[in-house]
Amino acid sequence: MIQCEKVTKEYHKGDNVIRPLDGLDLEIPSGHFLALMGPSGSGKTTLLNLIAGIDSPSSGTLRVDGLDLSGLSRGKLAAWRSQTIGYIFQLYNLVPVLTAYENVELPLLLHSMSRKERHRRVAGALDLVDLADRHSHYPRQLSGGQEQRVAIARAIVADPKVVVADEPTGDLDRDSASAIMALLQQLNRVLKKTLIMVTHDPKTADYADQTLHLDKGKLMDGRAASSGSALDDEVTP
Amino acid sequence: MIAPKFIPLVLRQLLRHRVRSMLTLGGVITAMFLFVTIQAMQAGVSAATQQNADDTTLVVYRKDRFCPFTSQLPEYYQSKIQGIDGVRAVIPMKIVVNNCRTSLDVVTFRGVPLDAFLAVRQEELHLVDGSFELWRHRSDAALLGETLAARRGLKVGDRFDAAGVTAYVAGILRSEEVQDKNVAYVHLDFLQQATDKNLGIVTQFNVLVDAASDLDRVARAIDDEFAVAEHPTTTRSEKAFVAYAAADMVELVAFTRYLGWGCIAAVLTLVGNAIVLSVQDRVKDHAILQTLGYSPWLIGRLVLCEGIVVGLLGGGMGTLLAAGVIEWGQFSLSTDGLSIPIEATPLLLLTGMGISLALGVLAGVVPAWQATRCEIARCFRAV
User: Fold this and answer.
1) Where are the domains positioned within chain B?
2) What ipTM was reported for this prediction?
3) Taking Cα atoms as reference points, which of B318, B309, B307, B301 lies closest to residue B269?
4) pLDDT tens digits, one per residue of B40-87
5) Is residue B334 within 8 Å of B102, Cβ to Cβ?
6) Cβ(B59)–Cβ(B238) under 8 Å?
7) Domains in chain A and their CATH numbers?
8) How far is it, in rounded angstroms, from Cα B162 to Cα B164?
């Protein structure tokens, strides 16, 4: 269960205060597949980053399975992320000098397990995303869709409870995007992962159990999203 | 510092920019090669000039003379010196060199009376080849110091020529004494005949005293004995004599310590620069790793390890290369027949490796600290 209570995030830019999230209240049940939509600067990615523990709220409380993230140090947040969160980026963000296998192995190096066990898990994750035969390829040797599948394997290899995806199909063609969304849906339905996804594309959002719309840092009622926003400081990995 | 499972990750990052890494390594190897070579010269100077508490040898030289060609003392001084209280033995010695200037390949002949020499020195000279008997029974026989034999590629039975003297190699000796390593000991009368035919004249006397504490007193007594003679003397301990006679060279070698520190600074700058550039290139990668759960502290340690690997690898290779070249060349700085050996001792190699490790750590500290300071969102925003 993910609980946001009056979560606010503020940035200071000179004398101006920029508020990507403004007193947001939200509950996401475990095993839920949630899509977040909204115009650029509406706070989608900021919310995603807060839930993933890579940023901290300026005020309010954010709990994941009862744990208040705002009180954790950077080191403890990192340890928590390694156990709990799988992150899928829009631009894949694979480490270019590592092979697909080594990229997927990265999160497991943080866990206490034998090399044999790591190998079993990496092979399983690559098999799940149908890239077992590409394990020795470097990112530059893979297509965009294949890179994103490696990124998904990396996100799930440590068996996190929550997977967050920031526009996972934003850089892919329609066919690749459909394949990726089918894969994410499978993660949610078969592996029971809580999945929170930011997207601009209504067709992509249709794969989710629920779609929420954000604008100016607040949740909108229904699906009618207002267009445009003055906020332009949103962090988009 | 880091678990072994992270080492491949460190190495992969170092190979990310192969040319840059290779150039950095090349620079580190060169700088550490120079540093170790300079340190070997410094160690040679220390070994040749710094007196030990148990040194008991004095060198009697012609007063106000600095070169073996101009120091000429009557051989009969031997009996007068022998009569001074506290003197254990006196070895008259004629010295001939093939090159009076400073050089890396000087052959120094030391003509000595066999019986007196062997009576005093035989126990501390270890023959690695040949025999004292062969040396005793051939008038042109020479005992070569190990360094000289190795440098010239000479072995027992060979004949060699230097300074107009042709000698037969009767033995190759090993000795802890610095000045024994680069000499050819020959019969005194043979050397006198072979050079200036000045029989009865020697270059110096090596005087062994009973106790190290007596060195100064005996030296003064010897110089007082000949103060008003036709050939007055100056007597110093052997190490002080080397320091005095080779003062110019010692001063030059001492100056090279600054070059050594320059090499250290170059290594520090090279490795530090390479790691800083590498870290700046990987701001995004570090953000990715943090997102995956890598703590800032772990990322800092990974970066620090990169510095250590470059420092140890480059420094180690430079150190070993210097040791190899020094061992192969058997170099010895010589002037006026006095030698300052250039030796890469195990201690020096260990010091080189230790300094390489320390430099790697130092060079990695700042970029490692920078890497730990990068917050994920800011890192992503920066690229």
Assistant:
1) 4-48+249-382, 64-231
2) 0.88
3) B307
4) 988 888 877 776 667 888 999 999 887 888 889 999 999 999 999 999
5) yes
6) yes
7) 2-97+162-220 (3.40.50.300)
8) 5
Q: Which residue among A79, A93, A96 sits closest to B293, beta carbon to beta carbon?
A: A79
Q: Which residues contact A174 (CB under 8 A, 6 or more apart)?
A: none
Distant-in-sequence, close-in-space partners of B74: CB < 8 Å, separation ≥ 6: B200, B201, B202, B231
Q: Which of helix, strand or coil describes residue A201?
A: coil
The dihedrals phi and psi of B42, each to the nearest 5 degrees, come to -60, -45
pLDDT in tens, A32-51: 999 999 998 899 999 999 99
CB A180 within 8 A of CB A168: yes
What is the signed CA dihedral for B273, B278, B283, B288, rounded to 10 degrees? -150
List CB contacts (< 8 A) between A100 and chain B.
none
Coil vs helix vs strand at A206? coil
Q: Is A111 exposed, middle or buried (0-12, 13-18, 19+ CB in 10 A)?
A: middle
Instruction: Give burial (CB, 10 Å; 0-12/13-18/19+) of A62.
Output: buried
**Residue with tokens 């009576």, as numbered in its chain:** B119
CA dist B191 and B93 (Å) reads 10
Radius of gyration of chain A (CA): 18
Distances B265 to A162, A180, B268 between C-alpha atoms, Å: 49, 53, 5
Interface A-B, measured as beta-carbon pairs within 8 A, has a size of: 74
The angle formed by the CA atoms of residues A7, A9 and A10, to the nearest 5 degrees, is 145
Q: What are the residues whose beta carbons fall under 8 Å from the beta carbon of A33, sequence distance 6 or more?
A: A184, A185, A188, A194, A195, A197, A207, A208, A209, A210
Out of B9, B16, B295, name the one closest to residue A78 (CB). Answer: B295
Q: From chain B, which residues contact A within 8 Å (Cβ)?
A: 3, 5-6, 8-9, 12-13, 15-16, 284-285, 287-298, 375-377, 380-381
Q: Residue B376: closest CA among chain A residues belongs to which residue?
A: A54
Beta bridge pairs of residue B162: B165
The secondary structure of B309-343 as a DSSP string is HHHHHHHHHHHHHHHHHHHHHT-EEEETTEEEE--
Residue A212 amino acid letter: L
pLDDT at residue B354, rounded to an integer: 93
Q: Count CB neighbours of B338 within 10 A.
A: 29
Question: B111-146: per-residue pLDDT in tens?
Answer: 999 988 998 888 888 999 999 999 999 999 999 999
Q: Please tell me the predicted confidence (pLDDT) of residue B100.
A: 67
